[in-house]
Amino acid sequence: MATLVFLEDHEGELVKGSLGVLSKASQLGGDVAAVIPGSGVAALAAGAGRYGAAKVYVADDPALAAPLPQPRVDVLAGLVRDRGFDTVLFGASVLSADVAAGLAARLGAGLNWDLVDLELRDGQLVGKRPALQDSVFVEVGWRGEPRLALVRSGTFEPVETGGEAEVEEVAVELEDFSTMAVMVERAHAESEGPSIEDAEVIVAGGRGLGEPAKFALLEELAKALGGAVAATRAVVDAGWYPYATQVGQTGKTVSPRLYLACGISGAIQHKVGMQASSTIVAINKDPNAPIFEYADVAVVGDLHEIVPKLTELVRERKG
Ligand SMILES: Cc1cc2nc3c(=O)[nH]c(=O)nc-3n(C[C@H](O)[C@H](O)[C@H](O)COP(=O)(O)OP(=O)(O)OC[C@H]3O[C@@H](n4cnc5c(N)ncnc54)[C@H](O)[C@@H]3O)c2cc1C
Predict the structure, then answer these.
(1) How large is the average pLDDT for residues 28-56?
(2) pTM for the complete prediction?
(3) Cα–Cα distances in Å, from 150 out to 17, 154, 175?
(4) Which residues does ligand 1 sit against, CB inside 6 Å?
């Protein structure tokens, strides 16, 4: 297998999800290379070696400064054609999903998306993806090569192996049609603390909070624990908290060390986004809430009483 992994950069760092996919590719074996298309990204190449890339292609060009897909498709399509990669892997993000789809169209290749696992069986690459609203898993394959795969965010953890990569700069030659889209404006929401994708601790809230203002209780606890606040779709749809914090089937997939679910019933669509958390603690006043079926620690009670006390205890303990 000759695998190329698309590495995405954000604010001077390689995105964790794409490094996780690189680690998985390295565990699967074969020739593993990575590509970093962007502007001012050459310094990031060495980092990719530590996560299992034997070779890193750097496409460093001001024309790749904006996070637009088509110029990146040009870079990847050139590499696949010239270097004979049979597999191209992506960690899901808004940009990488566009690049993967564009590359599939350009090469006439098959793309399996939303994968939660990859394995080699009798030399064949087999993907696993959830179906029927995440209630079952199905195995998927490819009819031809190159095989393209987009992996659900948060699926694979980056694993440092300490290796060193050979770095090769590649010339950036763009198609005329690839430069027609231009970035008009970029904006980002200001927030304190880690994002839910990166946080080791997540304090998540659902409809049991009763009203949007009560998210302040969770923010205090998350701050004390050095974590991030997440939400269910029910409260995001109600406009109580931003969509960027939604965990679940139609939100983000997270895998923190601790997931503290407050006033969340634990619907299957929520579960699929957080079930990979190392420890799940649930606070719910209903002893029959579905979340207790898969929580490691079940606290039956009123979150409005428990959460402020918990925050106080954490602060005391931290001195
Ligand atoms: C196609 C599809 C996709 C979906 N995608 C997602 C998704 O990505 N993410 C997601 O989260 N959901 C998703 N949903 C919605 C999901 O089915 C649930 O409706 C939703 O997760 C419920 O949110 P909740 O737990 O906040 O609310 P509820 O189900 O209303 O649960 C509130 C809980 O709070 C408890 N509670 C109430 N008061 C207190 C209190 N004072 N103290 C402690 N506990 C209290 C209650 O006992 C209850 O268990 C999706 C649904 C569909 C159909």
Answers:
(1) 95
(2) 0.68
(3) 11, 12, 24
(4) 133, 206-208, 232-235, 246-251, 263-265, 267, 269-270, 273, 283-286, 289, 302-304
